[in-house]
């Protein structure tokens, strides 16, 4: 096991009818900016619940934060924060709204030339503007971590940021929000959380027995609840386990003391930047090819995953590892998620070369051993056509 | 799954040669009281490591905190805190030293008549004197939670306390400390952590699929590493998994959203108060009888535990549940832990009646349904003779 530091100060408020508790968590004298996305919260009643809870609080609103939160939109929100002397941010939405809010938390206190530096110069935020979240879409885990990913349409870039000052002060997780989420988004959420765990787990054995089992616990639970979540989102038991699994998949715990890969995300981000494909679906496109291409380096963990998550008992380590990749791809298909780039776009020719070119420009070496070069990424993306 | 709040702000610093990092965590202008136990830290080198790290810090010392931290001793330490204007507490030790430090953190800021009230009147501490810990004995989980248990020899009482202000600010966990721990204490630590998980898990099914699997993950890991921990404490892989499992067993995570039992602890505490039996051993004495006595109420979870932790595949739910209890008792025996009260004292006659009398005086109803009455405790303790 590697040495590690672990600290996660976010307060989770989990359960039925908890949205009204938002009022108890925000200082009474705060000037709040309520941030949300495309407006679905106005149709499903969550907006009304939040507004009712905050009836006595000074609240300004900023809606319209898109999926893959866009820099230009966020700069408009930053202007509101400055103009209105906002002191507290409240994200009501999924990972995109929360990630956008984290960028704003950092940008609101950043005193450099341009907030874009936070992304390109990898500036870590030690203390941002305080914020909380009301989660409306389980998937990214952003509600209990300190990272974010921001997109800039202008340059077709999608970049990561973070820092210890970017944990939400609180996050409210009411599994009942799932009842109003379209099936497509639920499938995305399941795929996203599942791949988050894989990125932290599917590396090489390092003797972190407990972390391995925790990771497998989340994967097993997602596999167990997925059919019910898709078929009947009103099933509270499935919804609550789905929601808590998504949070635990990326709140830092299972990555402590172990190597991390994240190459699937890095390649996937480029597919979103280039084609606008849903984030989760890009992961499902890349993952099978990534595991096949890096089979020798990952086969021990692939086999362990096959045994423990998919109950594969027959065959050699290689057999179990191959079967585990097949099971993973089949799982994505069962969720209704296509796993080939050509399923999403006809213009895929040249994508692999473009991704490799971008990685080369940025000097990126990826994977748990930093051994995955741009030319490897090119081959993996091509395998995923 | 039940609704829950979860927040755990303790910073964990985990790994090889991390004790020197204690300096980075304590404010430079702090007046520190370093608290420790019977002096083993002076023999195993941990004291020297801490003192070297804190060479430039104003440190006063208070040693001699006994196992089952004793109120009278702690009141002497409280006098030092007041006399020396101490501003920061540093516990270097196991659960007893850390629990004692939590009492002092609360008592230092308490302005009621007598600090004993904190225990008898169940006064929760919202903000105590800040403190950190250097853990020398994995077992209780006190290094990452906000609870403590204090003993008063005078009245033969052992009482619990806690509050959100009693999380350590940081805890340093260097698994190498295990190399100098006597086998008896290692066996106690394994038993203590194992039983902590059981108390939060062995209740009734409530559909918290992920919490169940996390609990089972800790149990499986403790079972896997226990033989190596006892045979070769220098094995770092076993030591690190043991240490992290003990912390995760009682840092709040696995109890969220599920019912808790804790009756084994409540009965066990009385055996320590009456006979001075090691805390962990009292749990091993009570657990098998408790599960046999409450078999009907707990058999579904007992069977699940049998299947998943002990790989019991044959038989009915009842068969698996019985076999799981037998496996648990056999595990304690393999650790060298006796499981009958008569193995520890010849004066056991009348113990059951005394425990029942105490519970009756306090008006206690125990267990996950608060349905375990003093007369039930009497029968369970008698079964454990």
From TrEMBL, chains A, B:
Tree of life domain: Bacteria
Task: Give the transmembrane ranges.
Answer: none
Assigned GO CC terms: cytosol
Q: Does this UniProt record's set of keywords contain Hydrolase?
A: no
- Residues covered by the Fe-containing alcohol dehydrogenase-like C-terminal domain: 189-384
Indicate the segments forming the Alcohol dehydrogenase iron-type/glycerol dehydrogenase GldA domain, all copies: 9-175
Question: Does the record carry Nucleus as a key word?
Answer: no
InterPro entries in alphabetical order: ADH_Fe/GldA, ADH_Fe_C, ADH_Fe_CS, BDH-like
Q: Name one GO molecular function term.
A: methylglyoxal reductase (NADPH) (acetol producing) activity
- One Pfam family assigned to this protein is ADH_Fe_C
Question: Which keywords does the record carry?
Answer: Oxidoreductase
Q: Which family does it belong to?
A: Belongs to the iron-containing alcohol dehydrogenase family.
Name-wise, this protein is NADH-dependent alcohol dehydrogenase
Q: What is the lineage of its organism?
A: Bacteria, Pseudomonadati, Bacteroidota, Flavobacteriia, Flavobacteriales
């Amino acid at each position: 096991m590697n040495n590690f530091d672990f600290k996660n100060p976010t307060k989770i408020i989990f359960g039925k009818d908890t949205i009204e508790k938002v009022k108890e968590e925000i200082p009474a004298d705060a000037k709040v900016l309520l941030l949300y996305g495309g407006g679905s919260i106005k149709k499903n009643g969550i907006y009304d619940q939040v507004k009712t809870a905050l009836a006595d609080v000074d609240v300004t609103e900023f809606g319209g934060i898109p999926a893959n939160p866009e820099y230009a939109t966020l700069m408009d929100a930053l202007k509101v924060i400055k103009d209105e002397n906002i002191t507290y941010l409240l994200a009501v939405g999924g990972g995109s709204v929360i990630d956008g809010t984290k960028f704003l938390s950092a940008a609101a206190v950043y005193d450099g030339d341009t907030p874009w530096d936070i992304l390109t110069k990898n500036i870590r935020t030690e203390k941002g503007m305080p914020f909380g979240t009301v989660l409306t879409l389980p998937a990214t885990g952003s509600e209990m971590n300190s990272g974010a990913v921001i997109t800039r349409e202008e340059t077709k870039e999608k970049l990561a940021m973070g820092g210890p000052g970017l944990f939400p002060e609180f996050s409210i997780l009411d599994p009942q929000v799932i009842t109003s989420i379209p099936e497509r988004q639920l499938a995305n959420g399941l795929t996203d959380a599942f791949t988050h765990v894989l990125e932290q787990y599917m590396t090489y054995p390092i003797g972190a027995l407990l972390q391995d089992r925790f990771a497998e616990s989340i994967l097993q639970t997602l596999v167990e609840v997925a059919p019910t979540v898709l078929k009947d989102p009103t099933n509270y038991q499935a919804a609550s386990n789905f929601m808590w699994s998504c949070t635990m998949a990326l709140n830092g715990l299972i990555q402590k003391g172990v190597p991390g890969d994240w190459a699937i995300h890095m390649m996937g981000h480029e597919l979103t930047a280039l084609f606008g494909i849903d984030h989760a679906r890009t992961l499902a496109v890349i993952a099978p090819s990534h595991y096949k291409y890096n089979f020798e380096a990952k086969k021990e963990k692939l086999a362990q995953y096959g045994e423990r998550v998919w109950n594969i008992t027959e065959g050699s380590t290689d057999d179990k590892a191959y079967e585990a990749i097949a099971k993973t791809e089949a799982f994505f298909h069962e969720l209704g998620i296509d796993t080939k780039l050509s399923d999403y776009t006809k213009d895929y020719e040249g994508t692999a070369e473009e991704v490799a070119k971008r990685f080369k420009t940025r000097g990126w070496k990826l994977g748990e051993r930093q051994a995955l070069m741009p030319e490897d990424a090119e081959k993996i993306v091509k395998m995923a056509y």
